[in-house]
Amino acid sequence: MKILENKEIKRLFILFACIFIFFVIISIIILNYQNNIYVQKTNGIIENIILNIEEKYPDIDQEDIIEILNNNSSNNQQILYKYGIDDKISAVFSLQQYKTVSIITILILLAISNIIIIFIVYMYLKHRKKKIDELITYLDNIKNSKYLLDVSNNTEDELNSLKNELYKLTVMLKERTEDSISQKENVYKLLSDISHQLKTPLTSIQILLDNLNESKNMDEETRRKFIIEITKKVESMNWLIIALLKLSRLDAMAVDFKEENVDVNKMIREVIENLSIMAEIRNIQVEFLSKDNIYIKADYNWYKEAISNIVKNAIEHAREKVTINISENKVYTQIAIKDDGKGISKKDIKHIFDRFYKSQNSDENSIGIGLALSKSIIEKQNGHIYVDSVENEYTQFIIRYIK
User: Is residue 152 part of a domain?
Assistant: First the structure.
């Protein structure tokens, strides 16, 4: 029975059983004592009767007396009726009184046992009500966003099991509340950052457009430069908006990453090819140290974008050379991207992956979103990213994909 699995109910049953056994034993002792008294009194009366018979009838045979005493025949009951004694009344008045006392004693014992059981049940129900009231109070506290619940003294009865489940629910609700607050703070910060990031290029675009509209005699070369600058600002804003949309999708777990067998060498070569014009303009050599047959399970396009942002960042900060090195062991596959630039200061390095953070060596056109996007993409696909840098020597980004 499931009810017997409850330890508190088990203890209650054991207690009732002990009380019952105790009063049964007491009743048996009392009944045995009463029986002994009854036998003694009966034997005493019979002894007096026999002495009187022997005194008045000295010639009577002892065997006749024994036969009379052991004869269970009720043929002579009419004799007792003459004296007002029937089957319900003892012929010996003292025994009748003792019988009444015995019945009263048994009834008192039963009454005491019932009182004790009722008291135990009352205390149990009172204790149970107290626990229920605690749970009701706790539920009221949850409605008021108070999540403290003491589970240190819990037992294994059903109410404490319910209390434990409520505690689990509370922890979950508390985490969700904290996540909701954190998300709201992030949304507020994100909107503030977006507003700040878009305000500057929009202001520049507005100024350039005003100049184009107001300066009707502007020479063609200046006009062309203004239009090129406006185009750059628009492209920068477009990239920022797309990157933020991607980040918001990643934060909301709304991206369904494909699990493809990605050829790492092929992916890196495509990244280098796509950034070759940028590297050529900046006169940066990109060296790729690869090994054959290195594959990871990831979404090709998303991982390629993450690597592209990091390589682009390395090209922007390098003096002469960017080195990309692939290696692997039984635990992880590693992609190391190293530039020989000015490095990152100790003050900046701990914020390098923060959104919209720009270090002192950042390009003036940098928005500060690319590395944050890359980190989010990599970590969402079973990877980790680290940065190692020495000022005026190098910066190295290390990506490890756990197998």
Answer: no
